[in-house]
Amino acid sequence: MHVPDGFLSLPASLATGVVAAAGVGLALRGARRELDERTSPLAGLVAAFVFAAQMLNFPVAAGTSGHLLGGALAAVLVGPWTATLCLTVVLAVQALLFADGGVTALGTNIVLMGLVGVWVGWGAFVAVRRVLPQRPASAAPAASVGGLLSVPAAAAVFALLFGVAGTVPVPLDVVVGAMVGVHVLIGLGEAVITGLVVSAVVAVRPDLVYGARPLLQRPAVPSERVPA
Amino acid sequence: MSGHGTMGAPAARLGGRRGPAWWLVGLGVALLCAGVLSGFASASPDGLEWVTERLGFSAAAAEPVVAGPLAGYQVAGVTDGALSGGLAGVVGTLVVLAVGLLLARLLRRSAA
Questions:
Q1: What's the predicted TM-score (pTM) here?
Q2: Are B96 and A93 in contact (CB < 8 Å)?
Q3: Which of B2, B96, B99 best tests the A interface by mutation, with the highest count of A CBs <10 A?
């Protein structure tokens, strides 16, 4: 879903750039509360994994493909503020080194994938986590729902932006319908990958999964507690 | 000098029972995805590209303002497409990893 240079008008690109900068600024503050000496190595790894996974396009229907956006996955693994920063690093490297997503569209892409994708995914995850049994195994299905909803949400925001401020006139309802339609299918792939990765990490190191921590039981053996 | 406190604490603080093994496995999976599996990825247009082609506004895309050195996920001069793509993926993964680790470290330090 990487928006290239030239899709949105210059004022619209400036506006999304301002929104992205504000969001990243907030994330730089918020991530300090999420990062500690155990989670910061994971944050770098999550950014690298999201970059790698975004290269793996899977077919979704005749003649089209999708790839993981990774916002919901990153939010569940390292927390939503840190996830916004992870996606920002991925998108900046893609724009500057790979010409994947325009440099003038970097703000737009951060808004779509680093803010909308991350926070819709995180919000849905938290809502589903609340209603599922309070055990670590509930993290993966909740993360799947987050992934599922995050993709059409980001697609809808792009469609609204393009319908209002695109450089080619296209009826708003047409572009919204087309974008959301195909991205519901891609969201299914996002849901599968997000659920599989979260369940794998929860199986090995549930304590490292930011979104699973409220689901962990208190340590049975007091000596296992790490002093704060 | 921190991390050398009570017995058993360093291992727990550096990542717990299995040390950094989980981290190396994770990095291995990422490099495998970017370096090898990417060669088997679908070449079809992604959702956004498909919509822009179908609705006839794909021409709105301008030439990239910054022509990245690894544009198209290929390394210039490496003629084998899969090898070139795999190399570009590995380089990108390591660059993202380095920037991400550095940023996380800076933020953690400034929070203390």
A1: 0.91
A2: yes
A3: B96
